[in-house]
Amino acid sequence: MAAGAAACGPKDNDAKGSGGDSTPHKGGTLTVLNSQPQTDFDPARLYTSGGGNVPSLVFRTLTTRNRENGAAGSKVVPDLATDTGRPNKDATVWTYTLKKGLKYEDGTPITSADIKYGIERSFAPELSGGAPYLRDWLVGAADYQGPYKDKKGLSAIETPDARTIVFHLDKPEGEFPFLATQTQFTPVPKSKDNGTKYEEHPISSGPYKVVKNENDGEHVLLTRNPYWSAATDAERKAYPDTVDVRSGLDSSVINQRLSASQGADAAAVTTDTNLGPAELAKVSGDRELAARVGTGHFGYTNYLAFNPTVKPFDNPKVREAIAYAIDRSSVVNAAGGSALAEPATTFLPHQKSFGYTPYDPFPAGASGNPAKAKELLAQAGYKSGLTITLTHSNAKDFETSPEIATAVQDALKKAGITVKLQGLEDNDYRGTIHSVKTEPGFFLAHWGADWPSGGPFLAPIFDGRQIVKDGANFNTGLLNDKSVNDEIDAINKLTDLDAAAKRWGALDEKIGEKALVVPLFHPVYKRLYGSDVKNIVISDWTGVLDISQVAVK
């Protein structure tokens, strides 16, 4: 899952930044203040959407996200390649041609063999962590162990010449151009690969190169790559001369520093820290601060999950009763209010690119319908109500945390359902809910998209062939419905992504009627940026400020 956010575009700010001369200029230092360090800074090990934010400054890929505000930013565009890929008739073979004049930070040319090698090294067990799709999609890749153990490489990737690369897939994949935005498609020169140490100084193909990486990403310093050419890169603006990424900071400290905008912090942004409810209330009352808030929506859903193998959740009437009983207004308030969360009745997020189709299989209004819930419980044999346990995380994330669990508990009480809360420390929580052997009957969960489409949203959660019995399982409802599986396959064959989106929306509605999940809300991201930061771009892909676009005074 990507940890970014996907956006509706700036709402609280103008797209050029705040105050004075809004024209972006080259020069200066952009400071990035983050809570989480940029660990594993190796393109093989990163699990990003659209190439990531900081990583995308160093790593170019075959395709990338369109760096535009709003819906336009949900499109795939060429990066190192001349186009987004040329499929054969059934989308099982994809061919790319590299642009001319591409160079690394040392001036050597970038070749198709480097991209093939970069992908192959991502299969090495010691470089694990990236997206798993290539292992599933490429012909003969399921058991490949990377070039350190198998020097023959992957025959599914051909490089007939220095600028051409061809991918052979096990099955039709119309969304392969989306996958080609992942950092595993970054070129890596074999002669410069030093295994697990590569992250200390990965060879840049983007506008910036790494000159310092301390404490595994806690402090990353980037300066210009002199061999990067804007003529080959229509997406990255690369205005600042230097990008200084400092992590491991407390979120409240980050927001205080961005709010004050003193010294270097005036030219600072964050790529991972949101404003909390209390901070947002303070910011909203200050016109100058409010003008420096970027608003975005990630392709992300927070939901209630059921394990239908555990009683009483094996009874669809019980699951439907809970869906009717939920008070989404109170859940939204627990998540920080309507400025930070939008009520959800669909599993797919609200953006068009995901295939969002409005529906509500169990319409209960904003505050729930306890009477209808009681009626369904009676039909299920629980006329006097029932007692159940809700598992949640103790992490203070306003998503799967005690605040949300308590709001659910209060709502269900009105329908005669007594909810006992079981809070787990975050690591235990994740391990428990993602194991088929330990998955509880009723718990809070969330899912984020690997790219802005219904495919990576619905397939991992509802495709029965993706149930993992001895590992991390995300098909929480253990659904294995042939008609659902077949429709996923049929949509995956489509290279017309608009047509595919409509089919994903219809499939979402079909699955929603099974009441295997209860969508609660989609998060809204509010992030401050410094007073000297210009050219704010927030797309429907990432939902957060794109640092490849910003300029500083």
TrEMBL record:
GO cellular component: ATP-binding cassette (ABC) transporter complex; periplasmic space
Region feature (Disordered): 1-42, 186-206
Name of one Pfam family that matches: SBP_bac_5
A Gene Ontology molecular function term of the record: peptide transmembrane transporter activity
A GO BP entry: peptide transport
Residue ranges with Basic and acidic residues bias: 190-202
Occurrences of domain Solute-binding protein family (ranges): 75-465
Name by which UniProt lists this protein: ABC transporter substrate-binding protein
Organism in which the protein naturally occurs: Streptomyces roseochromogenus subsp. oscitans DS 12.976
